[in-house]
Specification:
Blueprint (H helix, E strand, L loop, with lengths): L2 H11 L10 E4 L4 E11 L11 H18 L3 E11 L6 H17 L3 E9 L5 E11 L14 E4 L5 H10 L11 H10 L5 H11 L3 E4 L4 H12 L2 E5 L7 H6 L3 H10 L6 E5 L13 E7 L5 E5 L2 E4 L10
Length: about 325
Amino acid sequence: MNEFDLINHIKKKFNLVFIGDDCAVLPMDDTTDRLITADMLVESVDFRLDWTRPSFVGHKALAVSLSDIAAMGGVPKYALLSLAIPEKLWTVSFLDAFYEGWHHLARELNVELVGGDISRTPGRFVIDSTVVGEVPKGKAVLRSGAKPGDSIYVTAPLGAAAAGLEILKSGRRPHAANQNDVNGLILAQLRPDPRTITGIQIRSNLEPSAMIDISDGLSSDLHHICNASGVGAVIYADKIPIHAAIDRTFSSKSSKLDLALHGGEDLELIFTVDENKFSGAQFDRFHRIGEITANADTIELITDGVARDLMPKGYLHFE
């Protein structure tokens, strides 16, 4: 059983109707729905303090939750932040840097911190991030609306965050003065940027049938859409955009594709849409990688004209 199996088990056992998307969608008033998302980051599982900086951890703690709001096409408004802090980190310098990183991103998107909790822990640093957003009534983009014939798009080249993780594992660390490809890939892992404005634009202008953020990896997150929608998909290896810095840094063609297919934490968006409703120019900034099929729960990857089943190989906490 992995974490998604557990979520589905709990959802069915207790008949929970608001679980199953990047955010819970709750009624707010006659014109607006409320979006709520929660994320937990655990030291040595989701981040390593010897690899990063306190300000980067604060930024990422907010970014992962903002990405969930973006995946629903919503506008983030408020946040709650709860911390379990070990004694070794109970210093003004660490906490000031952490909160400065959090607030720097929050100010960019007009998100206000309205509460949370602080506790001591004998173990590792734990962050619980909750963000509340809004979306026009009935307009939240769910995972469950994809239909056969819809096109599948991603918002930008993929794999940078996963490549950054591999570089960190090799012993390299971020350097503020360096603007090279290696440092850029490392920062994509340690300080990712959510596609908040892009998600709003997609929802407003393209009427997507489904959308999700790439937090677990393209292969896994596309499976989430297909499972929720009761559909399948075909995607094309030569259409999957790979971050340019990966091409310049990694030599193996298969490794580059694997980073783009299975590497999580890019915080880009996957969306499906009926292209017949729109002019092609509206999609120029995005990357079409395939189409939705009626072959439920099966995703095929076409490589050099040969089809094979694409299994979800993104990150799992429990396997």
